[in-house]
């Protein structure tokens, strides 16, 4: 079992793989090289990235790589699935909120907004032509794929290692977006993942037990900065084009797909528990579960009640929304169920 980490995409990438000793260095190098490649494609902070070139050509047809096409198709699909809560065309709003540089460069800096412009919600999405491998962004818009690309990169790397490199057991954590897999003797190969308590960072709130699957955590508390308008964070609500003001401070989602876990964790943080949980339950049909922390320091679980104590271990949420007994339109605490 080899364990290593490196920094890419402005976060720490943690990896743990079971492989032959003579393969360890090569596999570690492949993992880091893949993340570097994805960063060179999708970073908005690299002026020569494919994403930066795409943004400069807004309003014109732009030919794109297979990787960009795949991520843009996924982004379009998740925009529809979440009712627009996940919106890639938010880069102007991030800049307007003061998120001009990487967070590492911004840390501890008090920044002013670029302007006092009031941005309008995005009316039209980009237009993809998969056959031509091309896209047209709406004029005067810019795209940011930071809300999807870390989990996509981890998912693609995991698939390569399992299917091509014969790595039968592994763990990839890209800044809170993680995926794990185990070999044939899966019952003896559970991965235990701690869930950070945002109000007591020195102690985990509980643990996730995963054999094969993924989890993602999103938060409005980590990437925050001061501006002339007050405290800002990086999760933009597309309805207002401002940092979200929902009751959700942090959300962890687990399920079979790393990318969808990341999308729903961000969506619930943006929409909040009351609006986000019903949408999440309706659209995922029990395939995913979530745990949300709200600003009033309450915890909300959405999933099968039987998962508490098994998949979700050593935790007692304040409110349990059992998806087996909840009407899709109205969410009530477990104690209020008939």
TrEMBL record:
Keywords: FAD, Flavoprotein, Magnesium, Metal-binding, Transferase. GO terms for molecular function: metal ion binding; transferase activity. The keyword Metal-binding applies. It holds the Pfam family ApbE. Its EC number is 2.7.1.180. It catalyses: L-threonyl-[protein] + FAD = FMN-L-threonyl-[protein] + AMP + H(+). Its cofactor is Mg(2+). SUPFAM superfamilies: ApbE-like. It is an enzyme of class 2 (transferase). The keyword Transmembrane does not apply. This is FAD:protein FMN transferase. It comes from Paenibacillus thalictri.
């Amino acid at each position: 079992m080899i364990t290593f980490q490196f920094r890419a995409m402005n976060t720490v990438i943690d990896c743990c793989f079971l492989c032959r000793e003579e393969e360890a260095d090569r596999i570690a190098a492949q993992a880091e090289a893949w993340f570097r490649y994805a960063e060179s494609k999708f970073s908005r902070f690299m002026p020569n990235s494919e994403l930066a070139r795409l943004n400069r050509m807004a309003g014109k047809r732009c030919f794109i790589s297979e990787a960009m096409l795949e991520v843009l198709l996924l982004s379009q699909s998740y925009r529809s699935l979440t009712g627009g809560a996940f919106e890639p065309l938010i880069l102007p709003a991030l800049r307007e909120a003061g998120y001009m540089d990487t967070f590492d460069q911004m840390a501890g800096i008090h920044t002013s907004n670029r302007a006092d412009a009031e941005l309008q919600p995005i009316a039209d999405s980009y237009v993809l032509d998969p056959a031509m491998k091309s896209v047209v962004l709406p004029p005067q818009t810019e795209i940011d794929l930071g809300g999807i690309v870390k989990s996509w990169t981890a998912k693609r790397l995991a698939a390569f290692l399992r299917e091509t490199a014969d790595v039968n057991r592994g763990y990839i954590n890209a800044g809170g977006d993680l995926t794990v897999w185990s070999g044939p003797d899966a019952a003896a190969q559970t991965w235990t993942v701690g869930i950070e308590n945002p109000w007591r960072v020195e102690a985990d709130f509980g643990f996730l037990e995963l054999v094969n699957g993924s989890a993602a955590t999103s938060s409005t508390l980590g990437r925050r900065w001061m501006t002339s308008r007050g405290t800002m964070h990086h999760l933009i609500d597309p309805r207002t084009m401002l940092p979200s003001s929902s009751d959700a401070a942090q959300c962890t989602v687990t399920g079979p797909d790393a990318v969808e876990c990341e999308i729903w964790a961000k969506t619930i943080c943006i929409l909040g528990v009351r609006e986000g949980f019903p949408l999440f339950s309706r659209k995922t049909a029990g395939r995913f579960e979530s745990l949300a922390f709200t600003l009033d320091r309450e915890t909300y679980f959405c999933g099968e009640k039987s998962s508490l104590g098994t998949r979700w271990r050593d935790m007692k949420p304040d409110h349990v929304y059992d998806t087996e007994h909840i009407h899709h339109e109205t969410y009530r605490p477990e104690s209020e169920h008939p």
